[in-house]
Structure formats: C-alpha cells, structure tokens
Amino acid sequence: MWPYDFIASEDFPPAKQRGSVGGRLLVLDRYVSNATISAECSYVGLAAPGEAGSWQLESKGYQFWTKTDEGGNFTIDGIRPGDYNLYAWVPGFIGEYKFISVIRINPGSDIDIGDLVYEPPRNGSTLWEIGFPDRSAAEFYIPDANPEYINKLYLRHGRYRQYGLWERYAELYPSEDLVFTVGKSDYSKDWFFAQVTRKKDNATYEGTTWQIKFLLDEVDERAAYKLRLALATANVAELEVRVNEPNAKPVFSTGQIGKDNTIARHGIHGLYRLFNVDIPVAQLLIGNNTLFLTQTARISPFQGVMYDYIRLEGPPQPRKTLKEI
C-alpha cells in the first residue's frame, strides 16, 4: 500500500504528489554479442545527481530502486519530487550505468525514457576470468567454521556469516599463499572468499600474495592488455599487481582503500570498486605467466579485500575494412 495516504505530514508526499519513471535497459558488449541484450534482473534506481556509483555513498537524500524483468523493462513508482540521476548495474557485466541527463520529477510525473543501452568496459576479448560479476564474493570458497564458533542458523544458508572465518585462511595456507591455475583450478573450491592477512605465532600479521598462473599461446604487441579487478569490498587494504616478477615494482596499486568492515561483520560484499589495469606487453611471456596480487596492509585480521570478478582481456581487435568483409 506504500506510499500511504493516511500520513498527515508535509514531509511525506502522498501517491498523487509523487511521480514514476519507466523504460527498458539493454546491454551492448560486442565481444559477447553484436546485438543488444536484455538486461534481465538488473538493478535500476534514482538517487541524488553525481558520478556513476556515487549512490553507494549517498545517505542524506532519497533513493528509489527496482529490478528489471526478463526483457529489461522497469518501472519505478512513488518517487518524491526532485532532481535525480538514473543509475543501473547488470549482473554478469562489470561497471555501472548512468543516464546522461538529470531527471526532474514533478508531482504526478509519468516519464518514459525509452531504451537505455549500457556498454560495459571492454578492451578486447576475454583471455580468462575468475568469478561472476555480481558484486558479491559468495561464489568463491567459503570454509567450514571452527566447531567452537558454529552458528546453526547458517549451516545451510549464509555460510559466510559464521564467526572467525578470517582465521581459517592461515590454517589452510600456513606458510604458502593461494595459487590459482587458470584452466585447472576451480574458483568455487580453490579461491578463498577473502584475501586477508595471515596471523603469525607472535600475534602479529603479515600481508599475503596470491598468484594467478595462466598460459599465453601468443603475445600481441600492438597494445597493452587489460586487467579488470572488480572488488566486492575492501577494508583498510592496499592491493598491488605485479606480472611475472614478484619483487618488481608493481604495475598498479590501489593505494589504501576501504572502510567497509565486511570481514569482521561476517558479510559478503560492501562498496563495489572497479579497477582497470594496463598490463604492459613487455612483461608478458609466450607460455607460462604469473600474476601476483599482494595485499600489503598487515595491522589487523580484518584488513583485506573480497574479489567480485577478475578478467584479463587481450588488445582490441582491428576493425575490418570493407574489402576484408
């Protein structure tokens, strides 16, 4: 029955003094399909004007969200009068959509903005990927809890809500860190859901370095390769990326990021962050390669990141001429 008509407050507009917005969201990723794809089960919302993703940090204004149907259609009702940006994100695709224009809602507005096309970040074809882009780390390996801490409410669902899972990493990897081999490893079994610190015997902590091993049959020297690092959450962490040389200067560093506190609060996602990293061609090898992901912060057990999705893309393919077509 919301928005209610019985509330006699100027701060709560009744339904007839609110507005609605509708349309259809499509996705265009030419490395997936040459045609647009319906953005099924996507999240579309109105929030205060800002940059793409700024709604995650907006807490003073009002937000109105809905999910699209199987055809990508959406309707948002009950919107308070005001100026908004329209934002959206699509499970299965990285990044965030923002409608170019500010939408003004007046009392009784019924706005149809038609078809919206989201073109997610894309450099070239996918060489390999780890995880599924849905802003959550739930698809990765979540270990059993210490029997002393088990909460029976979450034995079947919400395994990540068990207390003390951050300590299980050091138990599973007491001296050597996680190594994931593309084509052989299974991220649901071999990729720990959170890259946390390792507790040492003297009650101090050390940073961790995870490795991704992958094979390249050839190296295209025309342009840099692109690494997409989508994080589901981060807490007072710093993530560095190195290629084939574990002690070399990093090709990328996030700097200190995050105050999500997701690890300590038994969550599986916080603020979404996407980093697009250029991988220099000169550092790639024909044959075996290793990507090093180092989380350097090491003061507490709750510093670390949860990955949403990682993808390595090759250089963009040259456009064909009419003669070649």
- Measured between the Cα atoms of the first and last residue, the distance is 57 Å
Domain module count: 2
Query: What is the level-2 CATH architecture name of the largest domain?
Result: Sandwich
Element order, helices and strands? EEEEEEEEEEHEHEEEEEEEEEEE
CATH topology of the largest domain: Jelly Rolls
Low-confidence stretches: none
CATH superfamily of the largest domain: Galactose-binding domain-like
What would the average pLDDT be, to the nearest integer?
Answer: 95
* Overall helicity: under 10%
Structural category is mainly beta
Beta strand % = 35-45%
Q: Report the sheet with the most strands, covering strand number, pairing sense and barrel closure.
A: 6 strands, antiparallel
Keywords: Signal
Domain Rhamnogalacturonan lyase: 42-112, 126-312
Protein name: Rhamnogalacturonan endolyase
Tell me what the structure shows:
Residues 42-112, 126-312 form the Rhamnogalacturonan lyase domain. Keywords: Signal. This is Rhamnogalacturonan endolyase. It comes from Salix suchowensis. InterPro entries: Carb-bd-like_fold (IPR013784), Galactose-bd-like_sf (IPR008979), Polysacch_Lyase_4 (IPR051850), RG-lyase_II (IPR029413), RG-lyase_III (IPR029411). The chain is mainly beta. It has 2 domains: 15-118, Sandwich (Immunoglobulin-like), CATH 2.60.40; 126-313, Sandwich (Jelly Rolls), CATH 2.60.120.260. It is built from 2 helices and 22 strands. The protein has helices spanning 165-172, 187-190, and strands at 19-27, 37-38, 43-47, 64-67, 73-79, 82-89, 97-98, 103-105, 110-118, 126-131, 179-181, 195-196, 198-199, 205-206, 208-216, 225-237, 239-243, 252-253, 257-259, 273-279, 287-295, 304-313. The strands form 5 sheets. Strands 10, 12, 16, 19, 20 and 22 form a 6-stranded antiparallel sheet that branches. A hairpin with an 8-residue loop joins strand 17 (239-243) and strand 18 (252-253). The longest helix has 8 residues, at 165-172. The protein starts with 18 loop residues before the first strand and ends in a 12-residue tail after the last strand. The model has no long low-confidence stretch (mean pLDDT 95).
